Amino acid sequence: MPLEIVVGHLVDQNTDIIVSSISKRLLALNENSQEIFRKIGQQRIVEEIQKYQNIEITEALVTSGFDLCKYLIHAVSPDYEENSAVSEALLADTYNNALSKVLQLEAESVSFPLLAAAENGFPRHLALDTALRTIGSFIENHDLTVKLVLLPEEKSRKIKYPQLHRLIKKTVSEKFRCQKKVRGFGFLTKEAPEEKIAARKALQEDVMAESYERADSCYAPCLADSYSLDDILENMDISFSRTVLNLIDEKGYKDSDVYKRANLDRRLFSKLRSSDDYQPSKSTAIALAFALRLSVPQTDDLLLKAGYSLSKSNTSDIIVEYCLNNEIYNIYEVNEILFHYDQKQLGSI
User: Which domain, by its residues, includes 321?
Assistant: First the structure.
């Protein structure tokens, strides 16, 4: 664990194994794979691959990693046919065969290109969906760190959830209008019109009043004269980590089910279990909310215990809330959406 989508080049990835996409004629099939062949030398790679006989579609061929990584795996990718179900099944087999080779080689990490999305003719969104679904299902049963490395031009522009897209566009437009309105006050000088100074002052006072109101609602019980420090400490909420562990028990989940569904590394989860004072990142806390199948109000409560909250004006948080409301709990599908909008992905990333 985990699985991360990145934009970049395979030759720059620091993983035990790197996968290239090749044809049955042993030709590299996309720019990311071609860059591997150029860096190492096509003749050197082909000489090692030629030991395999009767190469078939979906096969995974292993060569040395030369000076790039421990091993290279060359995946023979299928072409896209009109019957997309058959094509998707073949592409899934290609990923599974390569991942099985990774386990056989006792590696801990691997980088993939987006197989079959270029010369093989797969629509980018379909190639990405198949990759995430297949890799995600595989690593639920195996401890493996996987990077899916896309070139900038391989990012799909297809809008998967139109309602969410409209919501994000509306929020961005509103933020822009608000920023433009505030900037309209400009830098105030002594010569500025009195009404402009008064308007800026009123705006600042409104913001401060709202901040104080939020602070009062959060901290009023702590400041009340009727509470002693001993009372406050005695009645403190249970910690974030204890809350997570209690939810796991209540729902009858296993620890491994939760940290894998949250796209978290096992070692990170062990910190949560072993320390009542564990402080997660916001990304980790939200990932656990998805793994625990929480609602938006339950997620808000969980985040509050770690000192976070969901914002109505933050693109990432809007996506998170949309997915929770629509019970899109698959972390890889959520991360695909976050990736589409250039937001930080969830989990140990």
Answer: 238-349
